[in-house]
Amino acid sequence: MKISTKGRYALRMLYDLAVHQEEGYVSLKDIADRQSISKKYLEQIVPLLNKTGLLRTNRGNRGGYMLAGKPSDITVGDVLKATEGSLAPVACLDFEPNECPRVNECCTLFVWEGLNKAINDYLDNITLQTIIDRGTVMGGDYCI
């Protein structure tokens, strides 16, 4: 599994919104400038995050974006699943129940199930707040 630029940039975007949440709605231009990401690229990510309920949007003069929840409630797993889809290491684990015709005789299935569990457990236990806190301890921006 390899996390795409879309997933990494989405995490940076939501991190930026979390850090600047006191400002209310934040423009994509401001996020793009602070994170050195193309505004056009962020525009492609917004619908994915909006569809999954991670973002709130406001149009108009005071428009922009803000987190739909608290940074402590939004996990890295939430963000990556919204942008990457399934994080399963093999295709047969993309759906529950596993519909692979070899599911009952696959001698390596336990390996992939264990890896899938480890990936999801890890990413679902890191929140945006964790990243913010870690950045504060390190004395600066957290690089994703």
Automatic annotation (TrEMBL):
Keywords: DNA-binding. It comes from the Bacteria. GO terms for cellular component: cytosol. Pfam families: Rrf2. This is Transcriptional regulator, BadM/Rrf2 family. NCBIfam families: rrf2_super. Coiled coil: none annotated. The keyword DNA-binding applies. Gene3D superfamilies: Winged helix-like DNA-binding domain superfamily/Winged helix DNA-binding domain. One of its GO terms (molecular function) is DNA binding.
